[in-house]
Write a structure and sequence with these properties.
single chain
Length: 126
């Protein structure tokens, strides 16, 4: 008499998720939006992310004269999901890569919280 006990492991165990935003998203392109401003009507913002690891950031302070600025610099991706943009003066800004948008982060690379949080998102131009 032959007796067999089948203790085979489940074959469809989940593979580790190696997904990162950087791999999943084509984040190069131009992002636009109007960011909040403490002493103006808003900051019309256009951020162009190029595939040569450079960017151009145009900030137009609405309702102010001669208040349009252009910053250029380089960027890198940190932890597969945070775009770190460093301008020519060494100042850094942080953005969370999202599907079709970039969410500006605070100086500690944390999401901006509160009622104004949705206003800190730049949407990818079509």
């Amino acid at each position: 008499v032959l007796i067999s006990c089948n203790n085979a492991k489940q074959k469809n165990a989940e593979a580790p998720d190696m997904h990162t935003s950087e791999m999943a998203l084509d984040f190069h392109g131009t992002y636009e939006g109007t960011l909040p401003c403490a002493d103006c009507e808003g900051i019309k913002t256009q951020l162009t992310i190029k595939d040569d690891n450079t960017f151009v950031l145009v900030s137009d302070y609405l309702g102010e004269e001669d208040a349009k600025f252009e910053d250029k610099g380089t960027y890198f991706i940190e932890n597969g999901e945070i775009l770190v943009a460093q301008d020519e003066d060494g100042e850094q800004k942080y953005y969370k890569l999202q599907e079709g948008s970039l969410a500006q982060l605070d100086t500690n690379k944390k999401p901006i919280e509160g009622d104004m949080a949705p206003l800190y998102v730049l949407t990818k131009a079509q």
